[in-house]
From TrEMBL:
GO terms for biological process: transmembrane transport. It comes from the Bacteria. Keywords: Signal. GO terms for cellular component: ATP-binding cassette (ABC) transporter complex. InterPro entries: PhnD. This is Phosphonates-binding protein. It comes from Pseudobdellovibrio exovorus JSS. The lineage of its organism: Bacteria, Pseudomonadati, Bdellovibrionota, Bdellovibrionia, Bdellovibrionales. It holds the Pfam family Phosphonate-bd. Belongs to the phosphate/phosphite/phosphonate binding protein family. Residues 1-22 form the signal peptide.
Length: 303
């Protein structure tokens, strides 16, 4: 075949490939390729489902695009979804973001703010009739949330290492409220969950708050034994190759929504969010240091 024809064919092939790529990108948000919004399974699945549906409907209407809500069963599933390009955007836990950024280049664009605070803590909880000191957890049964939870695993492990405490048997409950339930029902001797300071009126807002209706005596039966070091709040994370203009539209849509009565309720019910702020990757360097402190690396969580 003449060289000129080969060149023409190659040029045509490359042109078609570029057009196809451009079309595929432009299809994000269509019925065929909806924006896939993931919610990390930090608490009660019913609340996440109900309020997540309201959030999805708002985003679809405000953006004028198709949006699909995803509720995975564990934290690392959200991280892996970024690697397989099944997740376009997610409200992701702190350690999950660090892993997704390192492994797949995911980008944090917003930080979740709770009543003006951009940090929270981990807490060690026990029953009031259980262990009286941290040392008394040595050799006991303990419930963690998830291997990729900073408050529910990483910082408690760091604390136990610093204090020379060895847990005899540990379980991963999967969600914050499930850990509290396990402690309340004496299935374990202690557990690790998130802690945020009480409201101005003194109402506790740590993980026990999630079960205040189911167990009205939760605050009397379950107490906080010790807090961990601070943790930067969870981020809103985007897949790295999403068009910048679409990221901006979603960011502005979320910031606008939380200022409405409906949005304020939905975000509070989902993750105790009262506002969004811009965030940079360096804001999560302290979590990277926590990983070093316990001798862990990202490949310990995501292969």
């Amino acid at each position: 075949m003449p060289r000129l024809k080969i060149k023409n064919l190659l040029f045509a092939f490359l042109t078609l490939s570029l057009v196809a790529c451009t079309q595929n990108k432009s299809e994000l948000g269509s019925k065929k390729n909806p924006i896939k919004f993931y919610l990390v399974p930090a608490q009660d699945i019913m609340t996440l489902t109900e309020q997540g549906k309201v959030l999805k409907e708002y985003l679809a209407k405000d953006l004028g695009l198709e949006v699909e809500l995803e509720l995975p069963t564990n934290y690392v599933a959200v991280v892996e979804a970024f690697g397989s390009k099944r997740a376009d955007v997610a409200i992701l836990n702190t350690l999950g973001y660090v892993l997704a950024h390192e492994k797949y280049g995911a980008e944090a664009k917003l930080k979740l703010i709770n009543r003006g605070r951009d940090q929270y803590y981990g807490q060690i909880i026990v029953r009031h009739d259980g262990p009286k000191t941290l040392k008394e957890l040595n050799g006991k049964k303990f419930a963690f949330v998830d291997p990729t939870s900073v408050s529910g695993y990483l910082l408690p492990q760091r604390l136990f290492k610093q204090e020379g405490i060895t847990i005899k048997e540990s379980v991963f409950a999967g969600k914050q409220d499930t850990v509290v339930t396990a402690v309340y029902q004496k299935q374990v001797d202690g557990g690790a969950t998130f802690y945020t300071p009480p409201d101005d009126d003194g109402t506790p807002k740590d993980a026990r708050w999630l079960l205040r209706t189911q167990y009205p005596d939760i605050y009397e039966k379950v107490k906080i034994l010790q807090l961990t070091d601070p943790i930067p709040n969870n981020p809103v994370v985007f897949r790295k190759d999403i068009p910048e203009e679409l990221k901006t539209k979603i960011i502005e849509s979320l910031k606008k929504y939380i200022k409405t009565p409906e949005g304020a309720k939905v975000m509070m019910d989902l993750y105790h969010i009262t506002e969004f702020r811009e965030v940079a990757d360096k804001d999560y360097d302290m979590v990277r240091q926590y990983l070093k402190d316990v001798g862990m690396k990202s490949h310990d969580f995501v292969q």
